[in-house]
Amino acid sequence: MGVLDRQRAVRLYRGQIPSPGRPSVAWRQDRVRFWAAIAAGAMTEDAAAEAGVSSPVGFRWFRHAGGVNPCLPETVSGRYLSSDERENIALWRAQGAGVREIARRLKRAPSTISRELRRNASTRTYRLDYKASTAQWHAERRARRPKTAKLVSNDRLRQYVQDKLSGVVRGADGQVIVGPAAAPWKGRNKPHRGDRAWVQAWSPEQIARRLPLDFPDDVTMRISHEAIYQALYVESRGALKRDLVSCLRRGRALRVPRARTRSKAWAHVTPETLISQRPPEVDDRAVPGHWEGDLLIGLQRSAIGTLVERSSRFTMLVHLPREVGYGIIPRTKNGPALAGYGAITMANALEQTITTLPAQLRRSLTWDRGKELSAHAQFSVASGVKVFFADPKSPWQRGTNENTNGLLRQYFPKGTDLSR
Fold this sequence. Notes:
Domain Integrase catalytic: 275-420
Strand content: 5-15%
Radius of gyration: 32 Å
Structural class: alpha/beta
Pfam families: HTH_38
Helix content: 25-40%
GO molecular function, one term: DNA binding
Shape: flat
Keywords: DNA recombination, DNA-binding, Transposition
Family: Belongs to the transposase IS30 family.
Largest sheet: 5 strands, mixed
């Protein structure tokens, strides 16, 4: 670097700033679109496509944020230069336009453009080369206002929260009190519920509400439940141990957006299969061939299907044997449905049963919102029976079938192995 270049850098009140390295794959507005799609219930892949980034980038954003929406405002205040304006500044500057000419085109003050060229230019080589990507990186880096999390700066509060989350009980001397041994957990689901720590663990909201009672005169011992959740979910917080998420009621390591859980509840129910789209002749019970169906659940997730014809009350039972590998392949979340009433197995069993009837007696089938009939489209194509789903929590819309199931319980009481 020459003497003149050094003097120029000093006069402009700028030292050498490290390069941002590889330019960011997306800007702030892309993250805003991504999280807006997540808040609307979109899956991560779809939200990434909406933001114009790849799926791995979207998954990384979601994982690093712990599923917590950073609540970025949609637009930056007009007093600040946008990324589009910085692109124009870089283009016009390369074409030789002066500061006042650029300011006139952007309808900005000349001092704004002059300050932008000094503050956000690339100085890795001690030359003030203005690049839009580097300038945007400098602006976003400078705009950050990181605040130390309360659980990081307050050791006493952090220890209190960690003890309550993990179910630790301490005496007056601060020593951990070991309780009696708990009986082993006999349930097949969620074995961590048998841990004493889980039984005694407090939720973040319980902790936040208890602090004013335990420390009424110490205002530093206050924290919101959302701050505790973010300390567990967001990697950059680093205040609480990551393994404490297993002590939460749900035990999730990432927050699942509420809109996403709502949209997944009955994803197999399409608008044309709603009970409101069912032909009016079904309600009259005058035309035979309209059926109601459901499952009877027995011992160890065994089941039989029940079909009741609305006009004649004729009943057919659907045998649902175990699938190959049941009892051998361990049960896993989202694993193969081997109990006998998975979607494909259920559709095939219903088809084999109902196709024994003539076509005049195979008009429609009304089912509840159970996911065992998720493959209803395949069943309708194979059997010619249109499928309709009742409204949530509305068993009276399938009253004939519900009454028949109650009668069948006399012969198939609860606790019976129905797979034989």
